[in-house]
Amino acid sequence: MAKELRERSNVSYKERAFAVALKGYNQSLMFGSPNSPTKEWGLSFGNRSALLFQTKQYASSLMDISRALTYGPQELVPKLMERVSKCCHELGLDPNGNDWKDPDFLQQLTQRETEEDRKRTGFVNDLFTLKNPHSLIPTAEECISIESNSQRGRHVITNKEVQPGITILQFISRDKELTYYTFSSK
Prior knowledge:
The chain is of the alpha+beta class. The chain has two domains: 2-120, Tetratricopeptide repeat domain (Serine Threonine Protein Phosphatase 5, Tetratricopeptide repeat), CATH 1.25.40.10; 128-186, no CATH class. The chain is 48% helix and 12% strand. It has six helices and four strands, in the order H-H-H-H-H-H-E-E-E-E. A two-stranded antiparallel sheet has the order 1-2. A two-stranded antiparallel sheet has the order 3-4. A hairpin with a 5-residue loop joins strand 3 (167-172) and strand 4 (178-182).
């Protein structure tokens, strides 16, 4: 499923239907796995990084390039490193430095970039954006509740029906990778 979604998105990308392609790449990532022997996750991140570059979202493109380098096949490396140089040039960064590899730094650039893109084009990669942040848990949707009982211990539930693919929780792991949890139906 992930491969088919990515391949359909490649067609949309070539037709310059960027919003359709972005949605497809995002869905491909949701259906894919970082442990796939076909390296599908890395290919989807690499393709999405090209789309983000085309739409002048250079920091977001760098974040995806970093993920593509981690999860993708080796034959992608030269093309990705060329894109790193172009993104760094646009952002005024040194491609040989470490700024483009720092998730915290890129996250700050991405937040600024996202707001600028909304104003400029109305096109933004906001699949993983919280739509209604929780008042007490700023990295979760308002539909999240934390409960505790003797059977399950402390756990998270949703207090309303949530559509599949909706981001409900995000956090930064110990290795400073921004992680998103989306709801999916069984």
